[in-house]
Amino acid sequence: MPTFAALVSGTGWHVEDLLRAASALDVSLHVLPFDEVEAAVGSGAGRVSAGGVALEAVDGVLVRMMPPGGLEQVVFRMDALHRLEVVGVPVWNPPRAVEAAVDKYLTLSLLERRGLPVPATWAGQTAAAALVAFDEFGGDVVVKPLFGSEGRGLMRVSHRELAWRSFHALERLGSVIYLQKWIRHPGHDLRLFVLGGQVLGAMRRTAQGDEWRTNVAIGGKAEAWTPDAEAERLAVAATEAVGAVFAGVDLIEDLDDGRRVLIEVNAVPGWRALSHATGLDVAAALLGSLREAVR
Q1: What is the distance of C-alpha 125 from the center of its chain?
Q2: What kind of architecture, by CATH, is found in domain 185-288?
């Protein structure tokens, strides 16, 4: 029986779903808090562990979610994942993919380098430069946190005075100012779940009421959607661009030019809404694929 470890942030539906799938697949699964990871070097050997489990001895590690933390904490957690990879423990997603996908600017840079369609985006550190970008984007932008998910912290700004205030507040906080030109879209986006170079399933997420954000975590409605060949091509290529084994890839249709653009690649994607909308057993697919990879 293979033994895996899932590094998580708290407990909840996804943890229970992974444990259910592990039992059905006859897989031993340790669910371990990411913030309990510790490591040592010297005395002839290095070691990485969490919750008393030696991670260098398991057959594979699944990175489910990284908890919030300071810069040093986040860097150390990634260092530990790199250590596991170096000593031969399969880590899904690989640490380089997690590092790339968690950073919105880096993600889009990697996608653009592959020739994939991305929205007009600007990132910088001063309010004055951000106001120039705001004007160049037609005075209608979405302000996003550089790191973040589930639509949290997004703000549409289409008034210059509000833009001035917002950008100066972010500058005072020492934050990166990350702007995306507002895309006129049909009120929904598309989430495709890629695993092992193929699209496992997809859903359409529709904003509700006066809300423009489509994320299910903030009230969006999810329904099963059958992707066409072009959507599948974009999703798989985006996943490969960040070096991920599995990912949640978001596409949105730009009504002004009729094309789809890639908004995000999530290397620690949730799948609750996708499973409910499509009936897919994503947890079983993930653990099953990891089991096949380590055989």
Answers
A1: 23
A2: 2-Layer Sandwich (3.30)
